[in-house]
Structures are given as C-alpha cells and as structure tokens.
Amino acid sequence: MNRRHLLKALAAGLGSSGIALNAWARVDQARIYAGYPAGTAVDTLGRQLAERMRPAYANSLVVENKTGASGQLAVLATKAGRADGTTLLVSPISTFSVVPHTFSKVAFDPFSDLIPVGSCTKNDFALAVGPSVPREVDDLPKYLAWCKANPRSASFGSGATGTKIHFAGVRLGQLAGVKLEHVGYSNAGAAMTDLVGANLPAYVGSVPTVIPFAQKIRILATTGSQRSRFLPDVPTLSEAGYKELAFDESMGLYLPRGTAQETVELLYRSMAEAMRSPAVAETLAVAGIEVRVGSGAELAQQIRAESAFWGGIVKSLGFKQDS
C-alpha cells in the first residue's frame, strides 16, 4: 500500500473521532524507548506494540532499549525527543511513582515532563516460601506466626532492591508486627535459586518467576486486588487482611510534553487496537502479564495515587538507591 492509500485508509478509520489527519501525515518513522533490556516484560510489550501498530501509527516503528538507572535513561531520552509523535516511551508505572522517591535526585518531573497516553497491561506479584520453612507453614498467617517465633529467619529476598516488591515485603512485616529483613539480589533468578536451595526462607517477586517452581515451593499470597488468573487458587494479601497491600504493576505508553492532543489521541487509539489482538494477549500471558487498557487520564491519576502511597513508605524507611 503506498503512502497516499495508507493515509486514505487511516482517515476513514479516524473520521468519526475528529482527529485532524494532516497533523499526522508528516510522520514516517517513530521510536519507542524501553528502559529495560531485551527479553524483559517492558521490552516484550514494546515490541508487541511496535509490531501491531505498524503501519497505522507510523510507517516505521522501532524499539530502542535505553537501559539504566531504574528506567530513568529511557525517560530522559523521551523527554528530550521531538514532541511530534515520533518519540514514545513504554514504561512501568514505578518509574514515575516509586523511582523519584528512591533516588536523591532525578532529572525529570514525574507529573509533567511526559504525557501519559494510557496503560496497556498489569502484572501481579507473589510471596512464596521455600524448603527451609517447615512444610506445615502453608498459608500467610502461619508464615507470619513462624517469623515471629523465629526472628533470625524472618527474611525475604527479591531480585529488585528499591522497588515495590522490596517495600511491600517490609511493609507487610510492619503491619503484622514482625520485622521482615529484605535480602537484595541482582536478579530474580539468583533469588529463586537460593529459595529452592533452602538458603533463603521467603521470596517476593513477579508471578511468572514463582510458577515454574510451584512443586518445590509454597506460594502463599499474591498482591493484586483480585486473585491472579495465573494462580487462581492462591489468596491475595487483601484476603488475609492486608488490604493496604493490594497492588500490581502497570505498563503504559508516554509522549514528550508538548505533543499535540490529536497525536496523543491517535496513539491511544492505535495502542488500544493493538492490545485487543488475541496474539498480543497470548504472548504477554507467557510472561505472566494481563492486558488492561486504561486512558491517559486514568494513568495520570494512578501515578499520583501510587506516588503518594509508595513515597510515604520509602520516606518512613529512609531508603535511598544512591545512599
């Protein structure tokens, strides 16, 4: 299909929305920045979007992994990009709601430097115990009681220090009246190796990291507001009485500040259409990710709410990534 026919087709699809096509006709190439390496959930989502949004959004749409500083480098690259729809960011919400509280200085304003286009997905986390915890400890209340009786073993690991899973584990201990010590690992694989090998009592991490080891560990709880579709028999922290700790991780799309509203709307429509693809849902499910599309306004509100919640916890702990 040549460019003239492509634009005619796009115009037909957008005619009822009131979006001005001539504001978009100049775009041939666009780039999606991802702040995490190839093969991660963020990268997987970015590549699925790039594949499904071509050519409706841009003739060429590529993913560039700009990794480092907990996703900040990708944010800064997007912030510095042209505000004409050619520079996009796919990012977990934590980059905006948690990271600014864990670093002494960040070079972006999480509320104003980028425009939230909309959320695409969500994924839950899980708490699991390994063989170093007695077999009869098979639910969350029993685990917390065991920690109180065995304070020297009351520790949990995660593959991501300074993140929601780190802070959620510590906060769970505070709410339960027991000090749960966090053991930071460089990645989830290393933490799971120690969990399965009885060198680590407990672990908090993403649902897909625990499922492959379900026969060797006990998954006691998940963190979502509802039970995970991937672990329907495992209760949530909310069900155990810890409603404060109902949380997940959203991933969404963002544009630089100053991008025209019609471009934001066009990107949202293209994104939402891509996320409706059964093939996208199937691919993401392998990584334990569920499709959950939300508007830019909803995503902006979620950033502010999460920032207030996690910021309070981080401040109470006195935690800094660069301290």
In short:
Helix content is 38%, strand content 20%. It contains twelve helices and eleven strands. The relative contact order is 0.18.
Describe this structure in words.
The strands form 2 sheets. This protein has a 6-stranded mixed sheet, sandwiched between helices. The chain has a 5-stranded mixed sheet with strand order 7-6-8-5-9, sandwiched between helices. The protein is built from 12 helices and 11 strands. The model is unreliable at 1-24 (pLDDT under 50). It has 323 residues and is an alpha/beta fold. It has 2 domains: 3-122 and 249-317, 3-Layer(aba) Sandwich (D-Maltodextrin-Binding Protein, domain 2); 125-245, 3-Layer(aba) Sandwich (D-Maltodextrin-Binding Protein, domain 2). The longest helix has 22 residues, at 296-317. The protein is globular and about 65 Å long. It is 38% helix and 20% strand.
Features:
five-stranded mixed β-sheet, BUG, 12 helices, D-Maltodextrin-Binding Protein, domain 2, globular, 2 domains, six-stranded mixed β-sheet, alpha/beta, signal, 323 residues, 38% helix
Topology:
Elements: H1 3-14, E1 29-34, H2 41-53, E2 60-65, H3 72-79, E3 87-92, H4 94-97, H5 99-102, E4 114-123, E5 125-129, H6 140-149, E6 155-158, H7 164-176, E7 181-184, H8 188-196, E8 202-206, H9 207-210, E9 218-222, E10 249-256, H10 261-275, H11 278-286, E11 290-295, H12 296-317
Parallel strand pairs: 1-2, 1-3, 6-7, 6-8
Antiparallel strand pairs: 3-10, 4-10, 4-11, 5-8, 5-9
